[in-house]
Amino acid sequence: MTAKRTWWKTLIGLIVTAVMLFPVYWMVNVSFTRPENMRKQPPGLFPLDGTLDGYRAVLDQQLPYLATSLVVGLGTVALTLVIAAPAGYALAKLQPKGGAALSFLLLIAQMIPAIIMAMGYYAALLNLGMLNTLPGLIVADTTIAVPFGVLIYTAFMSGIPNELLQAAIADGAGRLRTFVSVVLPISRNATVTVALFTFLWAWSDFIFASTLDSGGALRPITLGIYHYIGNNNQEWNAVMATAVVASIPATALLIIAQRFVAAGVTAGAVKD
Amino acid sequence: MNVQSRVKSQWAAWGFLAPIAVYLVAFYAYPLYRNVDLSLREYTVRSFVMGDAPFIGAENYRAVLADPTFVPALTHTLAFTALSLLFQFTVGLALALFFNQHFRLSHTLRALFLVPWLLPLIVSASTWSWMLNSESGIVNTALGIVGVGQVNWLTSPEWSLVSVTIANIWIGIPFNLVVLYSGLQTIPDHIHEAAALDGAGGWQHFWHVTLPLLRPVSAITLLLGLVYTLKVFDIIWIMTRGGPVDSSTTLAIWSYRLGFGNPLPQFGPGAAVGNLLIIMALFFGLIYIRVQRRQQA
């Protein structure tokens, strides 16, 4: 097809994408709007007479929340990888008895609504005295990601040639050694996909944060935004500036790791 | 392999599976058990801490089913899910067909469509809240230009469920687009060429060639969408908290409000509502697994 015949499709594509992304643009626009212009009619379509006050408020008030989210995200990723990678290897390559049943349980686990997990976790963590602690929140957040992680690892590791693993064992490597020095390095792409999605979900989590960590000293950014909305309904530029900052990981993910994103979605991605 | 090495390899396999097995028991099964336990006891804040709540059997379930909120919450859940799926799927499919035509920038634009899906839900929900604000929202401004009067999107009982559904459709379109697009990619070119040679026009081609070939992927997309939409919580809670007066309360919202949204939590009934939701999700989840198995066989 020549460029001449398709330019109008590109045009339609641009318009459709612009409509779809308008709310994202609007968030950015409002984050720069002065409070006195916030309720102006009609609202300014561009932040011509903009202000950085919203972002200053983020720097003043939201940094601890952002740091907490970073720690929670990284902790969730670490725990998820440690559990999911060996499980994927066993299911893909070691033909365990009962492996099919385990895969089935993982599929079921994916479908349990987070609100139900949250209530069970609340009861359990309360008894353990671990409400409002980061380890409690991290463990709860992994429940969003572990079944997905096992799924991705199993699918990826099934594609590793058996000859390669047999060669390692012939060289005298045990199964653990084979896993660590052959399987894991080859599965780097799977690890990246799982890590990226897990981080994003933990970073975005609101339901576990609001039920298990709402009273703690260290609260994640989703609660930072939530309390902003509740407390000062007038400062929408600060709310939207926080929202913009909270969207940075998702945006970075899309730019840096686009091919992993599409792979993750089509692998039967899960999201609450 | 002899018997000894087969036994040995089973030990090795389960050695690698040990973390996930322990994890599933401790971090999935146990919280779920606690949830069932909660729903069968009469909890107060005091007995919650002391752990001596009396066992009352199915009493919470009976109370929940007889509650005046139950029927509206169920109806809202079904309406929210059905409308979300209908629009997410049709718009997603239309976009997938469009982007499948490979024009300049099609790849980049398709990637940009993922943005709404990747944003934290609280970000999307608060942005929509402000856009749908009655006095200062851009949506009402735009409607005003075409002569429509002020719509109280989030504060009137007639519109609140529609509003949260619109936001949820927006969030779900990318997922449908990506999965259906990947389904379109698996249809071999020669099938399209053969149909074109037979003189099938655009619509005919879509109805008689593309759509039937896309049926397996469509079934998977819709069933997964169903399971995920049933449990949507964040968007509704942040935008309306289920209000005004229960008008956008779904089962997930109701469960949360009973357990966490009141000064006096009602954990027992909250857990009971949650368990009803699990049963619904698992019902459709098992259908999904069946469909998927049959396709792989």
Coarse shape of chain A: globular
- Biggest β-sheet description of chain B: none
User: What top-tier CATH class of chain A fits best?
Assistant: Mainly Alpha
Helical fraction of chain B: over 70%
Q: What composes the largest sheet of chain A? A: none
**What is the CATH class of chain B?**
Mainly Alpha
Q: How would you portray this structure in words?
A:
The complex is a heterodimer of chains A (272) and B (297). By secondary structure, chain A is mainly α. Chain A has a single domain, classed as MetI-like fold (Orthogonal Bundle). Helix content of chain A is 75%, strand content 0%. The longest helix of chain A is centred in the first third of the chain and has 31 residues, at 63-93. The two termini of chain A are 40 Å apart. Chain B has helices at residues 3-39, 45-50, 59-66, 70-99, 106-112, 115-118, 121-131, 138-145, 160-185, 189-197, 202-213, 215-230, 234-239, 251-260, 267-296. In chain B, helix 4 (70-99) packs parallel to helix 9 and helix 4 crosses helix 14 (251-260). Chain B starts with a helix and ends with a helix. Classes of the chains: A mainly alpha (272), B mainly alpha (297). At the A-B interface, helix 1, helix 3, helix 4, helix 5 and helix 6 of A face helix 1, helix 4, helix 5, helix 6 and helix 7 of B.
In brief, what are we looking at here?
The complex is a heterodimer of chains A (272) and B (297). Chain A is mostly helical.
